[in-house]
């Protein structure tokens, strides 16, 4: 292998969505480039003009930005490089590695049928034609694939994968309308971008054989190939619509954090022993292509949730509050000034059990309600005279709490239960309903700490002043 500086890339085709498999390919390229101190690049394969709209390209940028996997250099756009692709085809022809194929569509069709009947690949009669016999009509340019021997794709994950050359037809490099074909464009672009390692999904393994032949025909150095196994659904079948979400944006919408996705996707096909949770820095230092397994990886929602819960607990509350606020806004919850700070203050009390930021958004709602809160039916019914008097005494006890924080509030609630010689169960649920208006809320001390002294006592006062 050469000692060129490591350069990896992802080369997504804009389709309007960024598949989770593309995100994993991006991650592995990013990890390897970072691990090797190299660069990680992006090429937009936008040769399908119908699908490659500006919006579809933006989806890829947005996906990578969200994942934190922005490329190290400005993106390369494949379609814009068509002249360069044609130039390389001219060079291949000059080297005797490509030829003009004048077969007419009906001739090609007939040859296809013969080839099928004879169990061989299509061969053009123009492969070794004398230029003097060239007709005056449009032609395609085909690669002169070796007729014998084999092409070995030395894959860093799968090992040597052998292709019999006799089974490979002469690939069209340039169509008769002058447009370059996919495999040619990929090779030229990867070469010109200085790509040393091509890490991508194993649906491209066959292309790697074609591409290797093109590299050789040009005397260009063949990159290291690494074809990743596909991602399968929890049931072991290839990931498809029926398994639910596949787009990166959907994972964002479902409330997963980008660092969760990096950690989780790294574990799909690669891992470091049994480590469930690791930082980017650890993944970068440990990652090596040769440790990627060749068996398909299975999406496991329970693991994903577990990892997300970890990062939700670790995240800076201010950042998390901004995320939660935007979720609430998307649900038409009107936020007042200061509410985002209130959310940040509340998050530490509600986030332990949260699997997603959507759950966090549900969990902070209680604190955002405006006084006077409406009591749920059950709590209204429970507001007997006895309960009212008890809550009133509890309110007085709470008002005396010096440090309005979990330890003192817990002690106050416990002390009150003792002084009344009753269990907390006799008034706890009612206090909770009064504090939250029936919305999900953390335990009493957590809820009161989140609400603060004035708001907590105020909500109790409101409930006490409700007509009997
Ligand atoms: N454009 C191809 C795709 O989206 C990737 C090509 C490659 O990585 O070589 O599947």
List its traits.
single chain, 468 residues, mainly alpha, Rossmann fold, three-stranded parallel beta sheet, 12 strands, 10% strand, elongated, binds glutamic acid
Describe this structure in words.
With 468 residues, the chain is mainly alpha-helical. The chain is elongated, with a radius of gyration of 32 Å. The model has no long low-confidence stretch (mean pLDDT 96). The longest helix has 16 residues, at 20-35. It is built from 19 helices and twelve strands. The chain folds into four domains: 7-74 and 231-302, 3-Layer(aba) Sandwich (Rossmann fold); 79-228, Rossmann fold (3-Layer(aba) Sandwich), CATH 3.40.50.620; 316-368; 377-464, Arc Repressor Mutant, subunit A (Orthogonal Bundle), CATH 1.10.10.350. The relative contact order is 0.09. The chain has helices spanning 20-35, 54-67, 82-94, 105-118, 182-192, 205-217, 248-253, 258-266, 280-286, 301-314, 317-330, 339-350, 357-368, 377-382, 385-399, 406-420, 428-436, 444-451, 453-464; strands spanning 7-10, 39-44, 76-77, 98-101, 140-143, 150-155, 159-164, 172-174, 197-201, 224-228, 231-232, 297-298. The protein has a three-stranded parallel sheet.
Task: Write down the CATH class of the largest domain.
Answer: Alpha Beta
Strand arrangement, major sheet: 1-2-3
Shape: elongated
Largest sheet: 3 strands, parallel
What gap, in angstroms, lies between the N and C termini?
85 Å
Overall SS class: mainly alpha
What is Rg? 32 Å
According to CATH, what is the topology of the largest domain? Rossmann fold
The percent range for strand residues is 5-15%
Going by CATH, the homologous superfamily of the largest domain would be: HUPs
The level of helicity is 40-55%
What's the pLDDT, averaged over the residues?
A: 96
Please indicate the count of domains: 4
Supply the number of helical segments: 19
The CATH level-2 architecture of the largest domain is identified as 3-Layer(aba) Sandwich
Number of strands: 12
What binds here, in terms of ligands, is: glutamic acid
* Low-pLDDT stretches: none
